[in-house]
Amino acid sequence: MRLDQQMREMLETPGVHSVCLVDWRGGHILMHAGADDRATDTAEIVRAIRGGPLCAAQALEDVVVTDADHHLLFAVLEDSDLCVQVRMSSTEGNLGFALRGLRRLARTARVPPQPPQSPQPRRDSDHPPRRGRDRPRPAARVAAPVDRRVLERVVTALRSLSVDGSRSVSA
Length: 171
Hints:
The chain has about 170 residues and is an alpha+beta fold. The chain is about 25% helix and about 20% strand.
């Protein structure tokens, strides 16, 4: 099934308002279904996670960010610098059902091949947070401006997370 068909199918999930294919390095929406959406939030969050302690193993499958009005779900696609972003209402639909659909879409998505590029030497810091690492990376792009307040909130939240999962809970 083509990616645009999979995105339209995901849009039929109750509560989902938009589904976008995002270039998380450049912060650009490459394809979308549903309501117009911004990609800058997703790009900033992925970049912040990539630079944080939780990404030490270079494996990021999906992330859910929630505010008062909506849930922002995204999953990084294998073998690419792309991710699928899903925006859904926090009062409608089922978050677990939408997350399961997003994981299935990320696992089965067939991204059109990118034009071949000359191989460049890789550094450990060049690995994006994705499942596969065997393809050469595209040339670096100019970084998009970052909303510093959003980035500081994300980094603060990530620092408060426990890396090894041993959090103490007081009664």
